[in-house]
Each structure stands twice: as structure tokens, then as C-alpha cells.
Amino acid sequence: MINFLHTYHPSSILVSFGPIDIHWYGLLIVWGIIFAIALTFKLASYYNIKKETIVDLAFWLIISGVIGARIYFIFLELPYYLKYPLDMFKPWQGGLAIHGAIIGGALALWLYARKYKLNFWLLASLIVPGLALAQAIGRWGNYFNQELFGYPTNLAWSVPIDLINRPFAYLSEQYFHPVFLYELLGNLLIFIILIIIHLIIIRKVTSYELRVTSYKLLVICYLICYSFLRFFLEFWRIDETPVIFNLRFPQLISLIIILISLIYLIYLFLSNKSAKFNP
Fold first, then answer.
1. CA 28 to CA 39: how far, in whole Å?
2. Which stretches within 78-119 are classed as H helix?
3. Global pTM value
4. Integer Cα distance of 204 and 199 in angstroms
5. Residue 194 burial (CB count, 10 A)
6. Which one-letter DSSP state was computed for residue 95?
7. Which H or E run contains 244?
8. Quick check: 159 and 149 in contact, CB under 8 A?
């Protein structure tokens, strides 16, 4: 596997049918969505949530996630899109950001739960394991696109980047850190942690109050873990992004998410300090 990454030069196109190109990135995103929905079906069955509810919710989450991811990316590249405004409506040229997808999806989920009088935290806890898994699958698309790589390195697992995809400052370099792979592995670990938490809830938590608290803790776990992962991986990334207070913009957003999550975690602790876990 390491030797393959170090020597293989991937192509972004899987197959072409005349003028139509099927890209690896798009295919892997679809696979990620399918696996995420299948996993959510399985988890929902343990909580007596109907499949129809998950299908209906998935439709709105996909739409809001894509819109949120696109708007967020446009914001990051605002000078370019102010110069070429029509390119805002060309998502097939690339340009989606996971933080935007999370924000858009969370807003849609809140509206959906409120409309149908469902527990927001339960639904969110069912979704985040599949989200982490889908993120891991989708990161392979960055490999085929030759993007989301880091600084030059001679490590055995470094990946070759074609000249056309290298930043100007590193045209003389050939091998780079596979940051996409680091995030992929991190997301898989987060996925495993979230599944373990669900198994604990399903098997051992019987109190309704403790279950609701557990749903919240699971969602907070995802937010904190992914934000920590993203914050530290940004130190390796060399793609352009706005810098504020000497931090890359995704790092700043990650810190804000961590801070809000920790504040809410403290609130939960203080409001539930008298509750005890009875396995």
C-alpha cells in the first residue's frame, strides 16, 4: 500500500464516455453518502426510528450540505468569485468545504426535527458516525484529484504530485505529505469511537434522561475530535486559504467549534451532576 501511494500517479477521471467524464471524486462522494445512509438505517433500527424518516431526512441533509459546502467555499475564495461571479454556479469545477456542509446540514436537521417534533440530538447522534465514515471515503477523492497534500517530504508514504498541481513555491519538489490520508485515518478512528459509544448507549443506558445526555455527548465528541484533527492537520497543508490571527481559516473555525463544544459540555456537566450512570 505504501509503495503504491509512493509510485502511482492517479488520474481524476475514472472513465470517459465521449464528452462525459466520470470523476473519482464524485463517485467516492456518492459512495460515502450511500454508506452513511446504510449505517444510519442500521443505527436507527435500534432506536425505533423508521427508515422512511431517515430517507426523508437524508434528502434534505444532502441538499443543505452541498449548498452549505459551496457557500462556505465561495466565502473562502471571495476575491476570486467577486472577479468571476458566474463561476459561483459551477460546482463541477470543484469547491466544497466540509465545515460548510456541517453547518448547512446542522441547520437543516434542526428545522426538520422542529417541524416533525423529533429529538434533534438523537437524530444528530445517528448521523455523525456515518458522516465521519463518509468523510473518510471522500478523502480518497482528494488523492485522485492530487489535492489536499502537505509540505514536501521524502517519507516512504509520501505521494508524487504532478507538476501542474504543485504550488509555485514547490515546483522543484516531487513528493509531498499525503494529508488526505492522515485525515482519512483520523476520520476512521472517530467513526470507530462513535460506534462504540452507540453500542454502550444501546446496551447499558436505560434512563431517558441519561440517553438524551448520551446523544449530546456523542455529537459533542464528533465535533471536538474532528475539529482537533482538522486543526492540527492544517499545519501540514499548503493550499491557499485566508489567514486570521496567524491561523488558517479552518483552524480558526475548528477552535471556535471546540470552544463552543467545551462550554456546552461544562453546561451539561453542571446541569446533570446529580445524575449517575447505572449500567
1. 16
2. 78-83, 98-115
3. 0.90
4. 8
5. 23
6. -
7. strand 243-244
8. yes
- Rounded CA separation 94/254 (Å): 22
pLDDT in tens, 176-185: 999 999 999 9
**Per-domain boundaries in the chain:** 2-271
**Contact indicator for 133, 32 with CB cutoff of 8 Å:** yes
DSSP structure string for 202-240: HHH---HHHHHHHHHHHHHHHHHHHHHHHHHHTTTB-S-
pLDDT at residue 277, rounded to an integer = 44
C-alpha cell at 253: 473555525
End-to-end CA distance of the chain: 42
Query: In this predicted model, what pLDDT tens digit does every residue of 20-63 receive, in sequence order?
Result: 888 888 899 999 999 999 999 999 999 989 999 999 999 999 99
What are 238's three cell numbers? 499548503
Instruction: Compute the distance between CA of residue 181 and CA of residue 179 in angstroms, rounded to an integer.
Output: 5
Query: Residue 236's pLDDT is what?
Result: 94
Which ranges of the chain would DSSP assign to H, the alpha helix? Answer: 2-7, 24-46, 51-76, 78-83, 98-115, 120-144, 179-204, 208-233, 249-271
Q: Apex CA 206: angle with CA 188 and CA 270, to 5°? A: 80
Using 50, 70 and 90 to split pLDDT, how confident is the model at 279? Answer: very low
pLDDT of residue 85: 84
d(CA 164, CA 174): 11
Q: How many residues does the chain have?
A: 279
